[in-house]
Amino acid sequence: MSLFSDARWGEALTHLSDYLGNHVRVSVTALALGLVVSLPLAIAARDRPLFRSVLLGVASVVQTVPGLALLALFYPLLLALASVTLAWFGIGFSAFGFLPAVLALALYSMLPVLRNTITGLNGVDGALTEAAKGVGMTPRQSLFTVELPLALPVIMAGIRTSAVWVIGTATLSTPIGQTSLGNYIFAGLQTQNWVFVLFGCLAAAVLALAVDQLLALIENGLRNRSRVRAALGGFGIVALIAATLVPNLARPSSSYIVGAKTFTEQYVLSALIAERLRAGGLSASSREGLGSNVIFDALAANDVDVYVDYSGTLWVNQFHHRETPPREQLLGELKTTLEKQNITLLGELGFENAYALVMPKKRAQALGIHSIADLASHAASLSIAGDYEFFSRPEWAAIKSAYGLAFRMQQTMQPDFMYAAVASGEADVIAGYTSDGLIAKYDLAVLADPSQAIPPYDAIVLLSPRRAHDEALQAALKPLLGRINIEDMRAANLRASGNDAAASPDAVARWLWDRIAKR
Amino acid sequence: MPSFPLIAYSHVGKSFAGRGSSPVMAVDDVSLEVGQGEFLAVVGGSGSGKTTLLRLANRLIEADHGTITVEGEDVRGLDPVSLRRRIGYVFQSGALFPHIGVAGNIGLTPKLLGWTAAEIALRVNELLELVRLEPSYRDRLPHELSGGQRQRVGVARALAAKPHIVLMDEPFGALDPLTRDALRDDYRALHDRLALTTVMITHDMAEALLLADRIAVMQAGRLKALGTPAELSQSGDTYVANLLRTPRREAERLNALLPRDGAA
Ligand SMILES: Nc1ncnc2c1ncn2[C@@H]1O[C@H](COP(=O)(O)OP(=O)(O)OP(=O)(O)O)[C@@H](O)[C@H]1O
Ligand SMILES: [Mg+2]
Question: Do the interacting molecules here have an ipTM over 0.90?
Fold first, then answer.
């Protein structure tokens, strides 16, 4: 199949108005906010050297923070702030999605505007500023009638730089819950859907170029004092914003929001849940690619209605337990803890996505290794690879001490590459995930954990506080509980990691439902 | 001696922090009175403090020492913005605002003073006629004008709000001799007709002698001499005498070079 006749282009197109609209809204709002803050600051700072260097210094430091980190930092910050305002003034606000994205992007937009405004204003010919004084202008009149108009081309150039940065960086607001063109990119990267990745990148690039050209038109109009061109550019920007607002206003607002974290299985499960809701006559929309720390808080704050988490993840990451009780006890305690936050643990899906030590079946047989316990005597001559966080997680400490493991070497790897690495012998053992489809694909063996050092990671369905007593929702989801076993999920994940139209989360979700509904 | 001093400098000093350690005395203990209706030319070498002297009068800079009065009032007691609005100023470089049209540049001070649009339009037409510019130039931008036309607009802008006092910093530089001659004569006629008090800086001794009632000679921040051309010619100072002789010396050399009846 040629790249352009791929059915996934059509699927990508169906999301365009939603993703693009949100992308434009968040970028334009952030840019506007950035301008409103930066311009007065720049004007105030231009003839105060100390203030100027502090301001530019701070803005530069902000710029060095990677966009993703900056966006991620704003989420807990706002969350804390929201709880403070709720406690003090009884007013809460959503720390999820739009607000943190706008604030972080606005901050990100400031440096070029600040720098160019200061440079532009200070670059105005001294003879002209003196003439402005000489004809009897107040400093304010001089600023508005002489200095700003003359500095405008330079200021506009800064605004253009800023606009392109913001539009590009806004793709990173997906993990904090702001729908954007980044949804294509994050989903595509996770599910190996390169059509989506390409589509998202192209759409963001086209948008950035379009906005840049419109601003260029305004700039050109102002530079050549052509009202027509400036007005045309302004009109273009306004039209762009208006166009993205229209479909949004038409959208139903009362739909259920299904969340998904940033990995393949989550995309498939959220597609499955959304499909079940629609089958039950409910309307559903998805918020995908959410950061693991963001999604739980979003649920607690009713920004997300339903998503699938894993018992061990909540146990360790959210509630910071160190000891691991047996599976049933952990689930029971988790349920009561969640209930205190009005979050409903609806039930388990039937499979686990736990960390597991994995190695090629043949190799394991040759060495006579069946469980992690058997690994201990060989570890000194073997290497182990894990994802970025594994070796700093309590599970790893627990495994090491429970079995007395000491590997020859340990390395971190991008999860997607780990399986291929262990299959090709580049690593001897990896810390993989039990539900990963690649385990079957590469004929790998999951080593047993007789000492139960690794906590259970049952996939569990969580409901937001406001949906706690929603009968329709619960009825629609009940058929999924206990129905998806580890083979189902591995097979689904493997399909989803393929690189064709049948690998889209929606297609895989339908396939998975067909498979489990038959039983 | 002038009748009533419209501008009076009394022991005025102004120094700037120099590049090195020692400050530059741009204006050094200058006392000087400009009478009502008088046309005073200020001459002197480059860097002798002429522009600084002028800028002190409308408080574009503040004096370190001494007092300056304008129409009898100490400028330190006046609001600098309204002071500047009642003094016309022609800048050394012209300094028209490049993003504002001819009419807009000329009408600036009246606009700042709150004149109505109709009054401003009328005044702009009047001034264009006064400085002999076609009304069709109204909407041009400064860069669409010749150097001479720009300088005319500069003069018109200074006169726009009907000031009694006009300060001009080399207003007729960089012009071809014919335009320069015409503009000079035009301005002197305006000065007389509108009963202005004018202080004009020039590098051109002939211009100073031809136009001015009195001439002030600056050297290294100090007022070297002050008087009518006739009074100055009596000066024993060699610098002043040299300066005064330059136009005649030039004329004599030109006479020698050009055949009597050949020059137009
Ligand atoms: N803002 C300033 N800062 C520092 N030094 C200054 C400043 N303005 C003028 N000066 C110095 O003061 C002295 C007098 O300058 P001024 O501009 O008054 O000279 P001028 O007689 O107008 O010269 P020209 O004929 O070249 O225009 C010069 O040495 C100049 O370098
Ligand atoms: Mg000068």
Answer: no
Give pLDDT, residue A306: 94
With a 6 Å cutoff on the Cβ, whether B16 touches ligand 1 is yes
Residue A455 per-residue DSSP state: P
Nearest CA to ligand 1 atom 25: B46
Chain A residues near residue B96 by CB distance under 8 angstroms: 131
Residues A337 and A393 occupy one common structural domain = no
Of A127, A134, A225, the CB nearest to B58: A134
CATH number of domain containing A405: 3.40.190.120
Do the Cβ atoms of A132 and B97 come within 8 Å? Answer: yes
Tokens of A82: 């929201």
CA of A200 to the centre of ligand 2 (A): 61
Residue numbers in B near A145 (CB within 8 A): 97, 100
Nearest by Cα to A403 from A381, A369, A375, A430: A375
Identify the helix (H) or strand (E) that includes residue A233.
helix A227-250
Segment A417-460, tens digit of pLDDT: 888 889 888 889 999 888 888 888 888 999 988 888 888 899 99
Q: In the prediction, which pLDDT does A191 show?
A: 67
B57: phi > 0 → left, psi -120 to 50 → alpha, else beta; which?
A: alpha
CB contact (8 A) between residue A127 and residue B93: yes
Q: Does a structural domain hold residue A451?
A: no
Question: What's the CATH code of the domain at A308?
Answer: 3.40.190.10
* Neighbouring C-beta atoms of residue A247, cutoff 10 Å: 13
Q: pLDDT (tens digit, 9 = 90+) per residue, A455-475?
A: 889 999 999 999 988 888 999
> Is A333 in the same domain as A387?
no
Nearest CA-CA partner of B149 in B167, B135, B161, B137 = B137
User: Does the beta carbon of B46 lie inside 6 Å of ligand 1?
Assistant: yes
- Each residue's pLDDT tens digit in chain B (264 positions)? 445 789 999 999 999 987 766 888 999 999 999 999 999 999 998 999 999 999 999 999 999 999 999 998 999 999 999 999 999 999 987 899 999 999 999 999 999 999 999 999 999 999 998 888 899 999 999 999 988 889 889 999 999 999 999 999 998 876 778 878 888 888 899 899 989 999 999 988 888 998 999 999 999 999 989 999 888 888 778 888 888 888 888 888 888 888 766 544
Domain that holds residue A364: 355-446
A452 located within any domain: no
Give B248's contacts (C-beta < 8 A, 6+ positions apart).
none
Q: Final residue of a domain: which of A415, A446, A477? A: A446
Q: pLDDT per residue over A106-127, tens digit each?
A: 998 999 999 999 999 999 999 9
| Domain closes at, from A231, A250, A269 | A250
A:B CB pairs within 8 Å: 54
Question: According to CATH, what is the number of the domain B1-85+168-177+194-258?
Answer: 3.40.50.300
E-strand spans in A279-354? 284-287, 306-310, 344-352
Distances from the Cα of B125 to the Cα of A211, B103, B213, angstroms: 43, 8, 30
- CB atoms B95 and A138 under 8 Å: no
Half-sphere exposure of A181 (CA within 13 A, CB side): 26
Span(s) in chain B for CATH 3.40.50.300: 1-85+168-177+194-258
Q: Which tokens is A431 given? A: 């810390």
- The distance of B38 to chain A (nearest Cα, Å) reads 22
Residues with Cβ within 8 Å of residue A356, at least 6 apart in sequence: A431, A432, A433, A434, A446, A447, A449, A454
- Count H helices and E strands in chain A, helices first: 22, 10
At A35, which CATH number? 1.10.3720.10
CA distance A144 to A3: 54
Nearest to A131 among B81, B95, B161 (CB): B95
What residues are paired with B67 via a beta bridge? Answer: B10
